[in-house]
Amino acid sequence: MATYLELKQQAEKLLAEAERMREQEIADAISDIKEKIRLYGLTAQDLGLAASGPGRAGGAARAKSSPAAVKYRGPNGETWSGGRGRKPGWVTKALKDGKSLEDFAVKAK
Known about the structure:
Elements: H1 4-40, E1 72-73, E2 79-80, H2 89-96
Antiparallel strand pairs: 1-2
């Protein structure tokens, strides 16, 4: 019967062999893909990899959005727009300590 250390050594060898096999299969796949790209004259746009390729709505690039306006400022200058998602840690702590969001609201000048 094999010992723990012998089994561990065999497992490590198998993992190393599996990783080598994976790397070889990836290299083979890349080579095959490159050959087909060359053979058919495909472009990044044909494959949907270009910014204006197929699969994009209307073929247009995504519009850039501006960052949300700051609505709250923390005691150490942290900012938060009050948007969706989890509240920042400083907000959660302040609320737990009995403060309200109004205490941190940024006043319009």
